[in-house]
Specification:
The protein is of the alpha/beta class and about 290 residues long. The protein has helices at about 40-55, 60-65, 80-90, 105-110, 135-145, 150-170, 170-185, 200-205, 210-215, 225-230, 250-255, 260-270; strands at about 95, 115-120, 185-190, 195-200, 220-225, 245. The protein contains 12 helices and 6 strands.
Length: about 290
Amino acid sequence: SMGAAPVVYGQSDRPPRGDYSRAHSDYTCTQDYAAYTAQDHDTYHRLYERQSALLPGRASQEFIAALPSLGAKERIPRFEEVNERLFKATGWEIVGVPGLIPEVPFFSLLAQRKFPVTDWIRKPEEFEYIVEPDIFHDLFGHVPLLFNPVIADFIQAYGQGGLKAAELGACEMLSRLYWYTIEFGLIREGEKHGGGLRAYGAGILSSAGELEYSVRSPEPHRIPLELARTMRTLYKIDTYQQTYFVIDSMQQLLDLASVDLKPLYEELRQQPTIGAKELLPGETLLA
Ligand code: HBI
Ligand code: FE
């Protein structure tokens, strides 16, 4: 049925920008490909060109290797075309959405191996910065790593964990894990890839400024990812991150999915949150 539930997305007082009257009850909508203008395709092309030039030495090797699976960079991809390749690779598919959707429907799609992709693109005057995710963030930032079988399984497990967290009133804690991994995660790659710090989080990979800053700037803190620490850490949505959590392998993420979070949520509720740029006694920064 057309006409989804009202939009109640957390972190902003602005009404979301997309047209939610187009959405079905699960918040998905058909990509209206004919509605894209020549200017929209050009915006995608220019964003793609700029961002892909910055990837070597900054983005994870897995991401760089999978990027061509999105198809031609000169125009916005058709979701069906991406899905032909993606479904064969990992059993995932992308589904159109009008923009940010509430947590439970979001988790529910992920649990079904359906990744919601916003179907509209920013205006040319928003080239550098946009306050809500658009198709460039969702597609360029997130979809390449859905071709990686380990990340593919982790994101599905995250969706399943999210549905449980919603029942336990623990979405906020779990969302911090998503933020500091899938959105803003760094990985230390092995020697065969040049052995350095690389970005795998979509919020970084879709931002020209943060891609450089996150892996090279002396300013932010970088510390090894640890589940409880990450779930206690507050985050900023309107600045570059002040702390990044670093993994050693994609498998390390998937291993977190087998942890029983219920007792951990209960324990963490007793502990104070940690500020976005706070270091705990005894913690040391990664070089
Ligand atoms: N909706 N379309 C969309 N994309 C997101 O990344 C997203 C969302 N709704 C909720 C949400 N993210 C966050 O709350 C994720 O954890 C938890
Ligand atoms: Fe995102």
